[in-house]
Design brief:
The chain is of the alpha/beta class and 386 residues long. 49% of the residues lie in helices and 10% in strands. The protein folds into two domains: 14-183, Rossmann fold (3-Layer(aba) Sandwich), CATH 3.40.50; 188-384, Dehydroquinate synthase-like - alpha domain (Dehydroquinate synthase-like, alpha domain, Up-down Bundle). It is built from 15 helices and nine strands. It has a six-stranded parallel β-sheet with strand order 1-9-6-4-2-3, sandwiched between helices. Helix 11 packs across helix 12. It is globular and about 65 Å long. It starts with 13 loop residues before the first strand and ends with a helix.
Length: 386
Amino acid sequence: MNSHRRFTFELPTRISFGVDALAELPDEIRALEGSSVLLVSDPGLVAAGVVDRVVALLRENGFEPAVFTDVEPEPDAKGVMAAAELARSSGTDVIVGVGGGSALDTAKSAALMARNPGHIRDFVGLNMPSEPGIPVIALPTTAGTGSECAIWAVISEKERHDKYGVGGRNMTATVALCDPVLTVTLPARQTVGTGADALAHALESYVNTATQPISEALSEKAMELIAGSFRTAVFNGKDLEARSNMMIAATMAACAFAPTRLGLAHAMAMPLGALAKIPHGDVIAILLPEVMRYNVVAAQPKFAEIARIFGVDTRDLSLRAAADAGVEAVSVLLSDIGAPAKLSAYGVTESDLEELAEESMKSGNVVVNPRPARAEDLVEIMRRCL
């Protein structure tokens, strides 16, 4: 790319990373002059004891939080609006989001809606006019979505078979406390899905047409960490170094794509999640290798660099062979960790593809994909994934 072109890079969220970063939470609330806290999380983290641990820490430091734990996977707007109402009725001045992307996206969206009229769908898109929301402290418990520092939240309305993104400066966490200890008990299945999402964030940002030097550097480092640690995090989840590497990679990848957006895998993931109810990380893992095969001809130097990042010796390979090796290296990684590989396993059929492709074409991720794509191209990519 032309490194002299104009670009903008903004990171509104302050990131504090490290083992036992959770202990900083009370001081962070005080720094925001908070006194009334709403904790947003999900039932899985209640069952795992994480919510009780955070609540105990808050109580030990003089805070009596309100608690909202009705966050669903692929979070629904109903949960967002219910959490926003609880924030208003309890006089919340700091929201603490604890969990994966669903909990953090709900926390950020509820923070916005607690101080804005209407419904969360009124703010679909990038930088829709709004008042700043309640400050959010994000504590991720997965290494994947990067919601803790992303400018986006993805929300579903399951009754309407709809899924959309709300983005902008007012959709960011104020502080991200990234404590890899919180990911150690994440099951292998969820480690696969969230890690595949982080990988795709880094990779799609890296090869798309909106990429720029700061994002490229973040993406390269994120992919390097994922290449070296993903398998270990899946098969030996108690390995704190691997968990740490995956968490910082996920956070860096989210910082990378904030100003650049992504590509076709994420464009198609949205309607597949809404219409076929496929978990986001699963659908990304399925689509990414075929999207890479589609894109490789348009970004060969980048894909050759991906091969090098993933440990391929490319010195005796032509540019195209090295680029193809990058695609294969990622495909092998996803296969090694047992990532899902077929849309048909989730009930997607040939008859669904045209509608899914038409919905995918509405995504802003299509226009920055390195190779131009039409609806029929997306149909063919998805067909190869059946």
